[in-house]
Amino acid sequence: MEVSTTLWVLTIVGLAALIAVDFFIGRKPHDVSVKEAGIWTVVWITLAGLFGLGLLVFGGGQPAGEFFAGFVTEKSLSVDNLFVFVLIMAKFAVPSHYQQRVLLVGVLIALVLRAVFIAAGAAVLANFSWVFYLFGAFLIWTAWKLIQEARAGDGEGEEFEENKLLRAAERRFGVADRYHGTKLWIRENGRRVMTPMLVVMLAIGTTDVLFALDSIPAIFGLTQDPYIVFTANAFALMGLRQLYFLIGGLLKKLVHLSYGLSVILGFIGVKLVLHALHETGVHVPEISTAVSLGVICAVLAVTTATSLMATGRKPAAEGAATEEVEERRGEDATRGSVDA
Question: What predicted TM-score, i.e. pTM, was given to this entire model?
């Protein structure tokens, strides 16, 4: 799809305006209720839907299909980010009424860094088509790694570890020993130091770069249009803050999420390899955008359903085990009284 400079500028200005409205409404630190998070989640998903319909009207079915497939993929992969966000919030003991501000700024940092990744990825793919092989192989390897980690139960009891960039910034500027409202910098003993608020924002933003290493190649497997890649990422990320508060308590119930994401990444990896073979003149079938969207949605639906079924059976099994223990204790007590 041909995208003019004017459309790029209007899109960025429009996204900036939406972000400004979001920031203005939530400018006062407060605990985000499930109702508020739910409303804003619906708002961002609706905006993404309207944007996709706009692409359908003005660009045709292909760009619209690629956007929706990319948006759903990025949204599902971003849910995995929430697990790490929970660890970061716990690591830095972020007060609940400051968490929405931390996530807003952290996600903005992540969006800027992803824009750089997208620009670089688009430039590389435009000049070196063989990179599709690398992207495809990387996604297949990532999918296998996710399955191995899920089977090994990795992540249970895990703690967040600061990356080298974050540790370097802390050593260079120093960090205050407590939060000072929403201030990012304060003067302490005559020296300008960072507050924990700024540190946790940087942690959210820079940690997302690690997730971008698989999500960016994944969406390039669905579309090579930088405009669609960027907008799909933007809408997926900007709704992430509300999603954190909406399903934060449900994250532990998505026990099969890693398996679902591994299937999606593996599927897109195969799609990339097939596309690369097709580009080099090898006659192989290519997977259409419609098929890709259908597979992604089906995998997510099955993953969610099986996760809820598995977590629903677990409390029932635990309850039955508890009742059995209580019964045995009662029987032992009865035998003891009889013997006496």
Answer: 0.76
